[in-house]
Amino acid sequence: MSSAQLPTAQQRLISVKRDLGLPVVVAICGSTRFMAQMAEADLQETAAGRIVVRPGCNMKEPHELWDTPEKEHALKAKLDDLHRAKIRLADEVLVVGDYIGDSTRSEIDYARALDKPIRYTHPEVDPYGA
Predict the structure, then answer these.
(1) Is the N end or the C end of the chain the one with fewer CB atoms within 10 Å?
(2) Which region holds residue 38: left if phi is over 0, alpha if psi is between -120 and 50, else beta?
(3) Count of beta carbons in the 10 Å neighbourhood of residue 72
(4) Phi, psi dihedrals of residue 8, rounded to the nearest 5°
(5) What CATH number does domain 24-121 carry, 3.90.1300.10, 3.30.1300.10, 3.40.50.450, 3.40.50.300?
(6) Cα torsion at 76, 122, 88, 17 (round to 10°)?
(7) C-alpha to C-alpha distance for 97 and 95, rounded to whole angstroms
(8) Burial zone of 52 (CB within 10 Å; 0-12 exposed, 13-18 middle, 19+ buried)
(9) What residue segments make up the domains of the chain, in order of their start?
(10) What does the DSSP 8-state code read for residue 22?
């Protein structure tokens, strides 16, 4: 007697999104130095009928939410976790910008581990040359 494999959480999410008739969800990744380009990518992806999730905080700009090293460190950890959740939610990832730093590289590696399709606004920076 063989037991059927239970679907993974990711497989269940895909199924539910399909059952709900949701459009493709795109997670925008990249350095926050490219926030203007992310906004443009958001506009283009939205106009193409996709749901977009992207970084919502630019910690390179001053703000009272991260105006001390302690606040900045705590918020950065929360935001990293939140962005990984956005990647899990997404059907695909769009990497914006012509530079890949450690944080973005980590996001790309995470998306690859989840078998998410990845697009680049600047394909020449793809660290895997795909």
Answers:
(1) N
(2) alpha
(3) 14
(4) -75, 165
(5) 3.40.50.450
(6) 140
(7) 7
(8) buried
(9) 24-121
(10) P
- Can you give the pLDDT of all 130 residues of the chain as single tens digits? 556 788 888 889 989 999 999 999 999 999 999 999 999 999 999 999 999 999 999 999 999 999 999 999 999 999 999 999 999 999 999 999 999 999 999 999 999 999 999 999 999 999 998 6
What is the DSSP secondary structure assignment for residue 51, as one 8-state letter? E
Q: Where are the alpha helices (DSSP H) in the chain?
A: 9-19, 35-47, 69-89, 102-113
Backbone angles phi, psi at 69, to 5 degrees: -60, -35
